[in-house]
Amino acid sequence: MDKEIIKNRAETFEADAMESITIDCVIFGFQEGSLEVLLVKHAEGISKGKWGLPGGWIKKKEGIDAAAYRLLRELTGLDEIFLEQLKAFGDPDRFPLYRVITIGYYALVKRENYRIKAGFTASEVGWFKMKDIPKLIYDHNEILNYSLGHLRNRIRQAPIGFNLLPEKFTLLELMHLYEEILGVEMDKPNFRRKILKMKLLRDLNEKQVGVSHRAAKLYSFDEEIYNRLTKRGFNFEF
Amino acid sequence: MDKEIIKNRAETFEADAMESITIDCVIFGFQEGSLEVLLVKHAEGISKGKWGLPGGWIKKKEGIDAAAYRLLRELTGLDEIFLEQLKAFGDPDRFPLYRVITIGYYALVKRENYRIKAGFTASEVGWFKMKDIPKLIYDHNEILNYSLGHLRNRIRQAPIGFNLLPEKFTLLELMHLYEEILGVEMDKPNFRRKILKMKLLRDLNEKQVGVSHRAAKLYSFDEEIYNRLTKRGFNFEF
DNA sequence: TCAAAAGTGTTATGATTACACCCATGA
DNA sequence: TCATGGGTGTAATCATAACACTTTTGA
Fold first, then answer.
1. Stretch B187-193: mean pLDDT, rounded?
2. B173 within 8 A of B164, measured Cβ to Cβ
């Protein structure tokens, strides 16, 4: 396929990028008890004015994980983010103009670190609660639904939920995170005991300030502790 | 990129296929207590004489799952096989001649159904026990290792192991399957009770014949029972 | 003092584990 | 009769769930 044709057809095709393959990212955040997703409103091309997942092309000499990290950095300014591949989505007519296969990624970001940084492809960027997700372009609703299912699985098998919380958090905040993502109600005393028994959390010997009730202890998740435990055969299962 | 160049470069490039994207399949079988993988020995091209995962190109108007099913059918003659996508593998230099991203799939087949059917790309096809896997072409060892980890997870969360067993099996055969894949030893009485309590198995009121010990009851896995249970909120967890 | 969340204690139930033991069958 | 796997029973331990209760703090 001729490059110029593609260049005209595609919305922001870059000359040093691979043809027919893109990356789309589901970026999750957690704010005020709600799971949210970062969407972009397309500024040009056939999807102008419509919301979709942030994404882009893969450079010819760039690994796909590297491409996903780059796209995330370009969009959010954030480095060292939790990011994992979901899978490839390859319906023959998922993209209306020509055949494109996209590789889905999902990222978990701490909202406290996030500063919006709209890229050249997006006129507008916004966080949407899961229940307020609009109709998205192409198959992006499918990718999003799949990523939520995947997140629900992963969060029970690996301690990745901490990537959505501030560095310091209370046990109840952590519980609310699990409740929101898994869509269940949990028992506070039981949750406390269960998570504390895992010995994954570092007790910071600090307390909340400025809350109008008894201040809770603050904890942080320590990757090192987790790595030490898993080496000894520990298996996070929630 | 010019088609003719690709045609010469690639080993079996087909004119109506997508460029720069392939599919590779990890096909698992279970025979005499061992987990095995189907490998092909390449007949032509730069990998001539080396073993690798079976794979191929995606047609321009074909979904990626459909492409994986077609490749499997071409290779094994089997239809209606358990097949799921793993993920995409996209290291920039995973393939030595030019940039190709591959989408990994894994399949579970009943060895009793399988009849070898070497395709045009393979001079030789063979089953290899996991501990006898040779050095494979490109990043195929990585794909294989990843798929084993994935299988270990999936088999504990969904009743997919049955796809590796004959239609009728004994409880001990099922237990040996789990032991082999998960790499653990299990307690026979406890395994029996656990699996029977799930009520997923259909008691066939048949027994083994021609065994030199007390004949065991035969069971089969019934997809319908499973679907009925999951609709009511049942969750397979092993 | 009241509301709101922090945090502890207790008990019932069920799942898991470890292991002893009997049964059926062909070589 | 012996080896081999089929199959049942049981008791200890551990995890989970349900819920009552006390503590701390700011408004």
1. 97
2. no
Residue B194 Cβ under 7 A from any strand D atom:
no
- At residue B7, the pLDDT reads 40
The C-alpha atoms of residue B59 and residue B67 are separated, in whole angstroms, by 7
**CA-wise closest residue to B29 among B154, B119, B164, B183:** B164
Decide if B90 and A65 are in contact by the 8 Å CB cutoff. yes
Residue A84's closest CA among A25, A166, A148? Answer: A25
Mean pLDDT, residues A210-229 taken together: 91
Q: Which nucleotide is nearest to B211 (CA to C1')?
A: C26
Protein chain A, residues 179-198, with a C-beta closer than 7 Å to any atom of nucleic acid strand D:
187, 189-190, 193-194
> Mind listing the domains of chain A with CATH numbers?
9-154 (3.90.79.10), 168-232 (1.10.10.10)
The torsion angles phi and psi of A168, rounded to 5 degrees, stand at -110, 130
Q: Report pLDDT for A58.
A: 97
Give backbone dihedrals phi and psi of B28, rounded to 5 degrees, phi first. Answer: -95, 140
Nucleotides of strand C under 7 angstroms from a protein beta carbon: 3-10, 16-20, 23-27
- The two beta strands, A34-42 and A122-129, are antiparallel
Query: In chain A, which residues have their Cβ closer than 8 Å to the Cβ of B103?
Result: 88, 90, 101
Residue spans of beta strands (DSSP E) within chain B? 17-31, 34-42, 51-52, 55-59, 82-89, 101-108, 122-129, 201-207, 217-221
Are B87 and A86 within 8 A, CB to CB? yes
Closest CA to the C1' of C26: that residue is: B212
Partner-chain contact B87 A87, CB within 8 Å: yes
Q: What is the pLDDT of residues B3-48, one digit of tens each?
A: 333 344 445 556 799 999 999 999 999 999 999 999 998 877 788 8
- When CB atoms are compared, the residue of A20, A61, A63 closest to B18 is A20
Residue linked to tokens 């704010």: A31
Element (H, E) at B45: none
Distance A29 CA to C23 C1' (A): 60
Residue B42, pLDDT score: 81
What tens digit of pLDDT does each residue of B130-162 get? Answer: 999 999 999 999 999 999 999 999 999 999 999
What angle is formed at CA A33 by the lines to CA A30 and CA A34, rounded to 5 degrees? 60
Across the interface, whether the CB atoms of B65 and A90 are under 8 A apart is answered yes
Residue range A56-90, pLDDT digits in tens: 999 999 999 999 999 999 888 888 899 999 999 99
Q: Which nucleotides of D are covered by protein (CB under 7 A)?
A: 3-10, 16-20, 23-27
- Residue A58, SS3? strand
